[in-house]
Amino acid sequence: MLRAMSKGIFEHLKVTLLISAIAVGLPAVNIVSAQDATEEPTEEMAAEASAEASAPNTEVSGDLNFMGFGLGDEIATERVAYAQEQLPNVTLNFTEGGFDAQQFLTAFASGNPPDIVYLDRQTLGTYAANGSFMPLDQCIADQGIDMSQYREVAVNQVTINGQIYGIPEFFNNLMLIINTKALDDAGLTLDDVNTSDWEALAALNQQLTVGNGNDLTRMGFDSKLPEFLPLWVRANGGAMLSDDGRTAMLNSPEVVEALEFAVSIYDAQGGFAAMKAFRDTWDFFGANNQVVADQIGFWPMEQWYMNVLAGVSPDAPVAFKAFTDQEGNPISYSTGSAWAIPVGSKNPDAACAFAKAVTSVGAWTRAAQTRAEMRAESGAINTGVYTANRLADEAIFEGGIVQPIENEAFQNGVDVILSLQENAFAMPANPAGAAFQQAWQDAVNRVLNGEQTAQEALDQAQSEAQAALDEAWAAQPAS
């Protein structure tokens, strides 16, 4: 960030408050196909998209008040700086903290909502459905936003009843992060790490675990509950929600079996409570993180953590592989946020123009280039930036911003994530997003805490989720 300042990044920024950290994206849930049906991006398309956004937009002006977005790193500050240059007559006002549902609803009810909101794509549908967010079809037309540049799975997540309610931002995917020292200790290799065979996976978990319960010193495997239940369901050939977003499928045999297996991974290590207590001691973002400290064998994680490891422990004994379903197919699910405009925004035109600018090829490549320069100056590994803008990603990874990495492990990690981007899946858009998520996550927690069996918890969640879906869809106008 200091280097960015030295280049005069903030000369035109009219930012009233800076917040401490950017929300990279909450785990999203999924189950929709993701293969992009739109035209494949080319260098010419990327250049054209960048040029279209390069001229300052002086037609919008005034204050723009934000909720849920902060300027915690160079990726945020550089993109906001770019957007400010595109909108020289707009004053950008940020407030501290991520998106707060209660705070937003209170402000909305009082007739004084923020002008633009940054939130998880998974829960966006709830606010679109209750009339809090405006459809962006007119905004998209007025600003000439080419929605085909964004990944289809991300656009699907913000589309309710045929109308778009958000402009997608980050596009996080997950992969397996592996402690190779743990494998060496057990006389194993990377070929032994395979999530396709659940019986073998359970055995591998036990082979890599050191200690048990309160005496646990190394987790063999972390199945990442509750947030990654959708991944296990997908791997088991199931779905948690119908493709049209109307029918909950939370107590299907595939979901029950997936939850039972993922919980059994914790049971084999002494139970969830002991595991969580141990996990809470980790130096997750520090140089003595759980890989360096040999506190875990392997686990699924979003790709942004690869960048953390590259920065704080580039020599860690780490490797990366794709998570695979029970048929052996690599799978991933996308998480990420989006920009939405509340009904009652006092400056919707500027909000729309900002959403276009901050997610453009120009904004992303500028941020990625600054990160690359900063990493090069410090000698750190640069694993890139992964966005919901396909053209931006092509410019970043194929246009030379991210150079080949000498560290073979991290280069392989980048390759793994890039190979998964076109095959990610996400929870189908629905107008009860927050309530649906709450229902299944509460169910998982009840099982983890020993309050219910998987079948009992998911039967309850099915009833709660379907009721929420029925109510939300009934309130929607006919498409």
CATH architecture of the largest domain: 3-Layer(aba) Sandwich
Biggest beta-sheet profile? 5 strands, mixed
Strand portion: 5-15%
Given helix and strand content, the structural type is alpha/beta
CATH class of the largest domain: Alpha Beta
Spatial strand order of the main sheet: 2-1-3-13-6
Which shape, going by the Cα principal axes? Answer: globular
Q: Roughly how many Å is the radius of gyration?
A: 22 Å
Helix content: 40-55%
CATH topology of the largest domain: D-Maltodextrin-Binding Protein, domain 2
Could you please describe the fold and organization of this structure?
The chain has helices at 2-6, 43-52, 74-86, 101-109, 121-129, 137-143, 152-157, 180-185, 198-208, 229-235, 253-267, 272-279, 304-312, 348-358, 361-378, 390-398, 408-420, 433-448, 454-474; strands at residues 62-67, 90-93, 116-120, 159-160, 163-164, 167-168, 174-179, 219-221, 296-302, 318-321, 323-324, 330-333, 337-340, 424-425. Strand 11 and strand 12 (330-333) form a beta hairpin. Strands 2-1-3-13-6 form a five-stranded mixed beta sheet. Strands 8-9-7-10 form a four-stranded mixed beta sheet. A three-stranded mixed beta sheet has the order 11-12-14, with helices on one face. By secondary structure, it is α/β, with parallel strands linked by helices. It folds into two domains: 2-172 and 335-370, Periplasmic binding protein-like II (D-Maltodextrin-Binding Protein, domain 2); 174-333 and 432-474, 3-Layer(aba) Sandwich (D-Maltodextrin-Binding Protein, domain 2). It is built from 19 helices and 14 strands.
